[in-house]
Design goal:
single chain, alpha+beta, Protein Transport Mog1p, Chain A, seven-stranded antiparallel sheet, three-stranded antiparallel sheet, disordered N terminus
Length: 323
């Protein structure tokens, strides 16, 4: 069986060369039963094939196979470092495979950028495509492969999409790398989105953006209400101190001290210290914005209950150690 790298990141996409005399057919790519895109292969090829020890096979005929694979990474990656690590894995897990050339393929990057211009969720993506040539004497294969790394902003939570294409011919066939690379390029540039899926994907993205905007507006409104409520409570507390102090027979200095009464607090998770006017039994603060806080003497009041997505209040403790 092929090493794990072939299961996760299919690099050697095997296929017969296309001659001018051969016609092409478009093969649908499906996800959960829905056609999302098409790629073209020679008419003589059988597609959606299963080949022992080659789980990435897509279409095959007469010993040649097209492979196609995509991967989603839920965090940003450095494209060149990702590619270098990939080649190191290939060399380590396939000692008979000799990587003869490595290079960038700007034409595929340009094509992907242009193709995805109408796909809203990929707006703002950065695309880099790396290529390499491999010969494997033991498996009697000679290959060219492309690794396209697309970095997406994704509304502030960057993700990475990797697409792999390749073309392999038997060593017994007389093909130089320029012929293999030309077919690899043709195959990669045949990848086209299904128009119906494209329209549906854009509609879903717009709905998601609208929902996100509505949630953000609701969150901001809730924060403003909480902030105003807390400010009103602080005002009432301050006025109460003023009234009690004015009614007392204290000296001027004692009066000043009373209206500037402070409570020393600390975030037990981060050690961040806070100073607040007045005394409350329960003090909460948003660690990302200290101007957003919640103070109460009610032990059942908790701003983290039934809050909107993204709200985060940290309960503070008395800072008995002082400043």
């Amino acid at each position: 069986m092929k090493p794990l790298i072939y299961l996760l990141l299919p690099l050697l996409f095997i296929v017969t060369p296309i001659t001018q005399a051969q016609g092409l057919k478009y093969v649908p790519l499906q996800e959960n039963g829905t056609t999302t895109a098409y790629v073209s292969v020679p008419e003589s090829f059988n597609c959606n094939v299963k080949i022992p020890d080659t789980p990435t096979a897509f279409c095959a005929a007469g010993g040649y196979i097209y492979h196609l694979h995509g991967a989603f990474i839920s965090n940003p990656v450095d494209p060149e470092q990702y590619f270098n690590n990939l080649l190191q894995q290939v060399s380590a897990e396939n000692p008979n495979a000799n990587i003869e050339n490595r290079y960038r393929i700007s034409t595929i990057s340009q094509y992907v950028t242009q193709r995805d211009a109408n796909l809203l969720f990929r707006y703002g993506q950065q695309v880099v495509t790396f290529g390499f040539d491999v010969v494997d004497q033991q498996d009697n294969q000679k290959s060219s492969a492309a690794v396209t790394v697309s970095s997406l902003p994704n509304n502030g939570a960057p993700v990475t999409i990797v697409q792999l294409y390749g073309f392999t011919v038997p060593l017994s066939e007389s093909h130089d790398y320029s012929q293999i690379q030309n077919e690899l390029l043709r195959f990669a540039k045949s990848y086209q989105y299904d128009p119906n899926w494209l329209q549906s994907a854009n509609a879903q993205h717009l709905q998601f953006q609208n929902n996100l905007s509505a949630k953000n507006r609701a969150f901001q409104q809730s924060q403003q209400q909480i902030h105003q409520s807390n400010m009103d409570a602080l005002d009432r507390s301050h006025n109460s101190y003023m009234e009690r102090s004015a009614a007392s027979d204290r000296s001027h200095s004692a009066y000043i001290d009373s209206i500037h009464e402070r409570q020393q607090l600390v975030d037990p998770n981060t050690g961040t210290r806070y100073e607040a006017d007045g005394y409350y039994d329960y003090n909460y603060v948003n660690p990302n914005d200290s101007s957003i806080y919640y103070r109460t003497n009610d032990p059942t009041a908790n701003p983290n209950i039934n809050n909107n997505q993204g709200e985060d209040y940290q309960l503070l403790q008395e800072n008995n150690a002082g400043w």
